[in-house]
């Protein structure tokens, strides 16, 4: 079996060595234009030329959870697309979201400012029940985030495409229940895939439905958010702040107003990183299972978009 590797902006050699060690029976190589056709591909942000040449692929493994960029390309018709299914990202996402929720709820940035000014001040403790957290997307990452938030006893709501029943979570589904979900959330965490249905879903209409003083945590994709609508709602005081990890253009251009907005905190698309060893292990196990004709988790429905 042949495996080809095409991953933008990464050191290929440790991946190639890891894949060879995990699958000694496979011929693993770094893709170059004109390379021999392979059976399996491990990719992140490949060029269209890769798929134009690798027309025999049986399976394409995306070395990340989100497949929105890949689905913009023309993949070989017969190729199954499989994304990373947790692979160590869920716990990272849970710790990132919990630190953000706690930092905002406990006003830790305001305390840090006070201390920097030499002021020893106290703020009135907030009631956890006044800070319900709504999680958009109850998939692999969303459900892990929900569990972590519950450990800190925040009231948690969730919204997904299909109905869900999760212990202790007020679950909503479909476009018809989105307004009710938002109207009962003060902190909003976005963990949706980017699809034609979800592009621009964080906009003036939806964000203004949050409880007053709402706080946005966007860890999914930049194109979920209408940037100017967020700025308008922050400046109008309906939202109290936002933590953004993902952007329409990455790296975020230095001219973008998000860089200097007092109520916006930025991180550089780092909330849940692809962990090389864990990802190689997951992909290798899936290849072995597929060679045996067994089904694997994480296959993408290109029509649904995730
Ligand atoms: P999953 O596919 O496991 O979960 C997606 C969830 O979104 C599901 O609950 C699904 O509903 C729901 N959903 C999809 N479409 C809609 C819709 N139209 N309306 C309502 N709900 C919808 O994905 P993951 O949890 O693994 O990952 C989520 C996203 O997180 C990725 O697509 C990626 O964009 C982002 N990500 C960001 C990272 C970062 O570092 N910032 C790292 C990794 C991922 P249902 O359950 O009914 O199918
Ligand atoms: C992913 C990401 O989708 O890193 O895995 O954003």
Provide structural commentary.
- This protein has 306 residues and is α/β, with parallel strands linked by helices.
- It is built from 9 helices and 12 strands.
- A 7-stranded parallel sheet has the order 8-7-6-9-10-11-12. It has a 5-stranded parallel sheet with strand order 2-1-3-4-5, with helices on one face.
- The two termini are 27 Å apart.
- The model has no long low-confidence stretch (mean pLDDT 98).
- The structure holds NADPH dihydro-nicotinamide-adenine-dinucleotide phosphate and oxalic acid.
Described by strand count, sense and barrel closure, the largest sheet is: 7 strands, parallel
> What is the H-and-E element order?
EHEEHEEHHEHEEHEHEHEEH
What shape does the CA trace take? Answer: elongated
Distance between the termini: 27 Å
Give me the oligomer status.
Answer: single chain
Stretches with pLDDT under 50, minimum 5 residues: none
Report helical residue fraction: 25-40%
Structural class, please?
alpha/beta
Beta strand count: 12
Strand order, main sheet: write it out.
Answer: 8-7-6-9-10-11-12
The radius of gyration is: 21 Å
Distinct small molecules bound, one entry per kind? NADPH dihydro-nicotinamide-adenine-dinucleotide phosphate, oxalic acid
């Amino acid at each position: 079996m042949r495996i080809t590797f095409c991953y933008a902006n990464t050191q290929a050699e440790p991946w190639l060595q890891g894949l060879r060690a995990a699958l000694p029976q496979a011929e693993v190589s770094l893709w170059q234009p004109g390379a021999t056709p392979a059976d399996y591909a491990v990719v992140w942000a490949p060029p269209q030329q890769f798929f134009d040449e690798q027309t025999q692929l049986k399976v394409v493994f995306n070395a990340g959870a989100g497949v929105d960029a890949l689905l913009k390309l023309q993949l070989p018709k017969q190729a199954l697309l499989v994304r990373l299914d947790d692979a160590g990202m869920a716990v990272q996402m849970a710790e990132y979201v919990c630190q953000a929720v706690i930092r905002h709820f406990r006003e830790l940035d305001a305390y840090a400012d006070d201390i920097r000014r030499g002021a020893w001040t106290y703020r009135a403790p907030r009631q956890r029940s006044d800070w319900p957290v709504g999680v958009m997307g109850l998939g692999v990452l969303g459900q892990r985030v929900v569990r972590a938030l519950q450990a800190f006893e925040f009231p948690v709501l969730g919204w997904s495409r299909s109905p869900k029943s999760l212990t202790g979570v007020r679950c909503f589904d479909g476009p018809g229940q989105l307004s009710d979900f938002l109207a009962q959330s003060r902190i909003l965490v976005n963990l949706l895939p980017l699809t034609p249905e979800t592009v621009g879903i964080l906009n003036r209409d939806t964000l203004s439905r949050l409880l007053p003083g709402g706080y946005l945590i966007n860890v999914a994709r930049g194109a979920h958010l209408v940037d100017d609508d967020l700025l308008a709602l922050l400046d109008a005081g309906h939202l109290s702040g936002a933590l953004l990890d993902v952007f329409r253009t990455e790296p975020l251009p230095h001219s973008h107003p998000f860089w200097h907005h007092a109520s916006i905190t930025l991180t550089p698309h780092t909330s849940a990183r692809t962990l090389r060893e864990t990802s190689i292990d997951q992909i290798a196990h899936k290849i072995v299972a597929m060679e045996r004709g067994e089904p694997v988790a994480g296959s993408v429905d290109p029509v649904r978009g995730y």
